[in-house]
């Protein structure tokens, strides 16, 4: 579930969860829940991410996906409003991304 890498000599652990969000309109986007998102999760829910595998809740996965998009500036919606716009969130293994929500065509200024 989590990509856990031990850094030699420091004893620190970096974690990352790859998530795929499917919106109500059928579009989908992949986003990583990084260490910053996981620490924010622990602070918000007062639960260790080490317990996610044994006690994973739908709210956990959705909140991490929302937090990741918020951190990246890809949504400004409050959690509940954003939640009402999605169809689901799933854990992935970093598979190929679906077609992005936003066009990558150049814009003129």
- What fraction, in percent, of the residue positions are helical? 25-40%
Number of domains: 1
Indicate the structural class.
Answer: alpha+beta
Q: Secondary-structure element order, as H and E?
A: EEEEHHHHE
Instruction: Please state the CA-atom Rg, rounded to the nearest Å.
Output: 15 Å
- Biggest sheet, spatial arrangement of strands: 4-3-5
The parts where pLDDT drops under 50 for at least 5 residues are 1-12, 99-109
Give the overall shape.
globular
Per DSSP, the total helix count is 4
N- to C-terminal distance = 42 Å
Strand content: 15-25%
Q: How would you state the average pLDDT, rounded?
A: 81
Instruction: Find the count of extended strands (DSSP E, 2+ residues).
Output: 5
**How would a crystallographer describe the biggest sheet?**
3 strands, antiparallel
What characteristics describe this protein?
alpha+beta, two-stranded antiparallel sheet, three-stranded antiparallel beta sheet, 109 residues, disordered C terminus
List the helices and strands and how they pair.
Elements lengths: L4 E2 L6 E2 L2 E7 L4 E6 L1 H11 L6 H4 L2 H14 L7 H5 L2 E7 L17
Antiparallel strand pairs: 1-2, 3-4, 3-5
Structure description:
- This protein has 109 residues and is α+β, with helices and mostly antiparallel strands.
- It has one domain.
- Helices cover 31% and strands 22% of the residues.
- It is built from four helices and five strands.
- It has helices at 35-45, 52-55, 58-71, 79-83, and strands at 5-6, 13-14, 17-23, 28-33, 86-92.
- A three-stranded antiparallel sheet has the order 4-3-5. A two-stranded antiparallel ribbon has the order 1-2.
- Helix 1 (35-45) crosses helix 3 (58-71).
- The N and C termini lie far apart (42 Å).
- Mean pLDDT is 81; it is low at 1-12 and 99-109.
């Amino acid at each position: 579930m989590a990509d856990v890498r031990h850094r030699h000599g420091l004893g620190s652990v970096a974690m990352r969860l790859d998530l795929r969000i499917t919106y109500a309109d059928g579009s989908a986007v992949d986003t990583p829940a990084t260490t910053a998102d996981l620490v924010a999760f622990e602070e918000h829910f007062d639960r260790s991410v080490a317990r996610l595998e044994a006690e994973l809740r739908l709210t956990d996965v959705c909140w991490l996906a929302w937090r990741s998009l918020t951190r990246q500036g890809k949504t400004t919606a409050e959690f509940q409003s954003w939640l009402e716009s999605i169809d689901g969130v799933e854990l992935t293994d970093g598979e190929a991304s679906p077609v992005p929500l936003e066009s990558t065509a150049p814009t003129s200024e």
